[in-house]
Amino acid sequence: MYEKILVLFLVLHYTRSALIELSCSDINTFISGQNAVRQLVAEGKVEGLPPAAEMNSVVWDEELAAKAEKWAASYPKSVDPDQTIPSHRFSVSQSISVFLSNDLNYQMDFEKLQIMWFNEHENYTYGPFTQETISPSHPPVGDFVQMIWSDSVYLGCAMSENIEDELKKIYIVCEYGPSANVLGQLPYKAGKASNKLLCATDENRCENPSAKKCYE
């Protein structure tokens, strides 16, 4: 009798976990979304923020995407304390978002995700990044500040899913390099609106900012 109960429990307790490969459409949505927000700041069109005198664009980075995949595969509850990458080109910073749904067929909308990050600007006052800014008592601003951190010109993201019984959890991890949200530093240089994004990598990458596989 006890064996039958145990077997029944194992059958009913369903779990599935997987790392979900991002499509070129997904990757392009991340890149275009980040650069669209930076363009708004460059034009001085984000309410409450001064225009950017200089604002760099972002491009996709395979090494950062690989790091994001590794962390997403762990179904994380917090950011990765390791801010290094194998090449040691620069330190990195990270954004994590977790979504829960009872709809097991729910598909992540990356445009809405970035709108959610952008909306954090309502809680943000331009100035040097401080410890108070990342305090649990402070309204969230970290994801937005990373989006507009001009020196962070490389981006890599990943997604994983965990389904347990009737609950689906989606984990989104994005890595920025060089690191954003550096204490005591400003996200960008304010001044007369530049109205354009600068290329801080090489021109070919800025003209083709997506993943390599998207150009093959």
UniProtKB/TrEMBL annotation:
<dbReference type="InterPro" id="IPR001283">
    <property type="entry name" value="CRISP-related"/>
</dbReference>
<dbReference type="Pfam" id="PF00188">
    <property type="entry name" value="CAP"/>
</dbReference>
<dbReference type="GO" id="GO:0005576">
    <property type="term" value="C:extracellular region"/>
</dbReference>
<dbReference type="InterPro" id="IPR014044">
    <property type="entry name" value="CAP_dom"/>
</dbReference>
<dbReference type="InterPro" id="IPR002413">
    <property type="entry name" value="V5_allergen-like"/>
</dbReference>
<keyword id="KW-0964">Secreted</keyword>
<protein>
    <submittedName>
        <fullName>SCP-related protein</fullName>
    </submittedName>
</protein>
<dbReference type="InterPro" id="IPR035940">
    <property type="entry name" value="CAP_sf"/>
</dbReference>
